[in-house]
Amino acid sequence: MSTVQRGAFIVIEGLDRSGKSTQAALLQSRLQNANVSVKLMKFPDRTTPVGKMIDAYLRSQSDVDDRTIHLLFSANRWEAVSSIESTLAAGTTIICDRYAFSGVAFSAAKGLPLAWCRSPDVSLPAPDLTLFLDISPDIAKSRGGYGEERYEKEELQRRVRNIFHQLGDELPKDGAGRWAVIDAGRDLNTVSESLWHEVAITIHDCTKQDSVGKLWQ
Ligand code: 2DT
Ligand code: MG
Predict the structure, then answer these.
(1) Where is the Thymidylate kinase-like domain positioned along the sequence (predicted)?
(2) Which ligand 1 atom lies nearest to the CA of residue 20?
(3) Atom 2 of ligand 1, residue of closest alpha carbon
(4) Ligand 2 centre and the CA of 115: distance in Å?
(5) Distance (Å, whole) CA 140 – CA 130
(6) Ligand 1 neighbours (beta carbon < 6 A)
(7) Nearest residue to 16 via CA among 107, 131, 108, 143
(8) In this predicted complex, what is the ipTM?
(9) By C-alpha distance, which of 131, 103, 130, 124 is closest to 212?
(10) Residue from 102, 146, 152 whose mutation best tests the ligand 1 pocket (most atoms within 8 A of CB)
(11) What CA–CA distance (Å, rounded) separates 192 from 110?
């Protein structure tokens, strides 16, 4: 029996309005054109029962205690783990719009202790590559649609950005599990080219590894 090379687990992180969803879709079609099997995922996944509670909270239709909502965001990732693992094992690359770094950054920016925020996500599948779309909160704000949901406030986004950088600084700049900072204040095509460059390296390297790593352990 021939073994299938596993897919790469690629996460896109960044502030609201940094272009994550647009770039994830561009990356998906570019990979498809290159005959790479690819699946798009996004967290929070608002379609599951847990995701529906998160959605109501984000749209301010419900109030949930800070620690409780944090654990729901984490649960929303854990409920996807078997699907992530089987997708990668089947040779399909995952492009994931937000992940555990958003989980820690937003809750810690609200004032919860960083170590506490991290712990429920420890040992989730570790991304092979995290692309951090870095943008200043004032540029993000000027992109429109800002302020519709909870968390879309400049002062909070500033704190979130700092924590993202702190989390990224702990990760390697090269090799497995690396964190790549992408200047997302540039035009769409330039950003897309940068992402493509990073992704191509990871997909190439990833085929040499057996299984996906575990986050923060
Ligand atoms: P979107 O705008 O991407 O739908 O995100 N968030 C996200 C958290 O607070 N914790 C998490 O674990 C995740 C994945 C970031 C909606 C908001 O939810 C925040 C923005
Ligand atoms: Mg949003």
Answers:
(1) 12-193
(2) 3
(3) 16
(4) 24
(5) 20
(6) 16, 43-44, 58, 73, 98, 102-103, 106, 151
(7) 143
(8) 0.98
(9) 124
(10) 102
(11) 31
User: Which ligand lies nearest to the CA atom of residue 102 in the structure?
Assistant: 1
Q: Which domains does the chain have, with CATH numbers?
A: 9-206 (3.40.50.300)
Interhelix angle 100-109/154-169, nearest 10 degrees: 130
| Lookup result for tokens 């909502």 | 69
Please give the Cα distance from 114 to 99 (Å, whole number): 16
Rounded Cα distance between 118 and 115, Å, is 5
pLDDT by residue for the chain (217 residues), tens only, comes to: 557 789 999 999 999 999 999 999 999 999 999 999 999 999 999 999 999 999 999 999 999 999 999 999 999 999 999 999 999 999 999 999 999 999 999 999 999 999 999 999 999 999 999 999 999 988 988 887 666 899 999 999 999 999 999 999 999 999 999 999 999 999 999 999 999 999 999 998 887 777 899 999 9
Q: How many CA atoms lie within 13 A of 79 on its CB side?
A: 16
Q: Please give the number of the atom of ligand 1 that sits closest to the Cα of 73.
A: 12
